[in-house]
Write a sequence for this structure.
């Protein structure tokens, strides 16, 4: 029987449980040190809230991913981030429950520091225990490797790539080579021929077999049947390029295939993202309705014509949709763009220009006029909440290019389009007004796609609010 490794957010439930205990102990010690009078019930509620917040953060984050393989310094940084996020959310909870006046700042700061200290110490110690258990010979499975001679070095390296694993290679079987064939792995017993391999399995402890997938399908099928009938677990290497990210074995029709993508998301996470988009879209549409009362008359007075701007944009993987904005430019802006291309400050396919004369009221001076006000405050973007409700866009993603920009894309630029475009995104909150190289935009968008998580979306949304309120919007 094969012991399947747990997956999902509860994979490292032991570390999660110990972290919660450590943070609770930190809170209790901080409380005992400060000893606030007549506040026991409030701190009990805070302790309960701490547990619930920690579970929620564990559920939405990747804090425990590859925790067994991490070095001490990487672990320290992860602990600081993890404890800080929980404490900040706890502080928001305290503020919302109007307990900030009675909650001791000393208790808060002390529990924060002790939480980091205890959690880091606990993780370092517990990892040593887990690693000892994993590498203890009696707990490791004996694995027989079956491969051709030229494939042995690569297979052995790949199988041993992680220092802490639940198996060891007990022998290597060469089914079609003679004894004169040399191998780089002379310290591992070599078995030549099918009959000797079967005898080895009969007489020795073999828990698992790894069959290199370069063998033909008929031989793979026959060997698998033999081992399964003997009660041995079989692993079949599919031999895809090692650098492909996020590999996953699944059924495609009737075929078994390895699926790989720049980023993979569980269905429930995408469902949560869509629900957040719907809620945000509804709130945004209501706010847009209120803004219409003031913005529409102002635009029509400044430059007669439609108050809304509709333009075809490129969505996920090249799909075309209509984007909506409050109009911040004169009616002939698109026609005048060709005349201004020589003054484009953006290196690459996007267009950006300081003191763009196409903006309504720009003749009043740099940064002045209605159009510049609408753009700096990002009011022009509000109608896109309708696009979010329709499902063309998301709250967070990559900005959708125009048809003209898309037609000039190189193949690697299409990485931006592998998710739904967003109202805001990574490069918008990373100094968008100062970025003048389109390849830097591609890099930031690619970074967002590779690191995507629900928590990253939340951080970008909060940063977006800071950018808008700080008047660091688009120029």
């Amino acid at each position: 029987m094969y012991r399947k490794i747990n997956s999902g957010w509860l994979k490292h439930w032991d570390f999660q449980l110990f972290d919660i205990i450590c943070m609770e102990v930190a809170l209790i010690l901080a409380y005992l040190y400060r000893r606030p009078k007549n506040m026991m019930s409030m701190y009990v509620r805070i302790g309960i809230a701490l547990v619930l917040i920690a579970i929620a953060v564990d559920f939405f984050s990747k804090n425990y991913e590859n925790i067994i393989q991490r070095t001490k310094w990487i672990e320290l940084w992860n602990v600081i981030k993890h404890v800080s996020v929980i404490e900040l959310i706890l502080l928001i909870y305290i503020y919302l429950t109007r307990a900030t006046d009675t909650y001791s700042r000393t208790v808060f700061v002390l529990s924060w520091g002790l939480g980091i200290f205890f959690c880091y110490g606990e993780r370092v110690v517990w990892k040593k225990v887990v690693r000892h258990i994993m590498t203890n010979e009696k707990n490791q499975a004996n694995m027989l490797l079956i491969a051709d001679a030229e494939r042995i070095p690569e297979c052995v390296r790949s199988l041993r790539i992680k220092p802490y694993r639940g198996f060891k290679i007990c022998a290597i079987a060469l089914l079609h080579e003679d004894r004169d064939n040399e191998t780089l792995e002379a310290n591992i017993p070599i078995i030549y021929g099918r009959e000797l391999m079967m005898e080895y399995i009969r007489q020795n402890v073999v828990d698992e077999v790894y069959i290199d997938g370069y063998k033909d399908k008929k031989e793979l099928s026959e060997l698998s049947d033999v081992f399964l009938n003997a009660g041995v677990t079989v692993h079949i290497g599919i031999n895809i390029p090692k650098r492909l990210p996020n590999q996953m074995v699944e059924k495609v029709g009737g075929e078994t295939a390895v699926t790989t993508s720049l980023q993979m998301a569980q269905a429930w996470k995408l469902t949560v993202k869509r629900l957040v988009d719907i809620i945000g879209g509804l709130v945004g549409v209501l706010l847009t309705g209120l803004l219409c009362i003031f913005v529409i008359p102002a635009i029509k007075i400044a430059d007669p014509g439609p108050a809304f701007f509709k333009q075809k944009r490129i969505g996920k993987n090249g799909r075309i949709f209509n984007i909506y904005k409050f109009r911040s430019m004169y009616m002939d802006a698109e026609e005048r763009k060709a005349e201004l291309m020589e003054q484009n400050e953006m290196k690459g396919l996007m267009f950006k220009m300081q003191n763009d004369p196409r903006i309504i009221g720009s003749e009043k001076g740099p940064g002045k006029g209605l159009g510049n006000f609408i753009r700096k405050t990002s009011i022009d973007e509000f109608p896109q909440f309708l696009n979010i409700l329709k499902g063309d866009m998301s709250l967070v993603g990559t900005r959708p290019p125009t048809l003209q920009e898309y037609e000039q894309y190189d193949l690697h630029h299409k990485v931006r389009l592998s998710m739904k475009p967003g109202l805001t995104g990574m490069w918008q909150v990373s100094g968008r007004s100062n970025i003048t190289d389109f390849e830097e935009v591609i890099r930031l968008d690619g970074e967002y796609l590779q690191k995507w998580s629900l928590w990253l979306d939340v951080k970008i949304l909060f940063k977006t609010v800071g950018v808008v309120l700080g008047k660091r919007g688009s120029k």
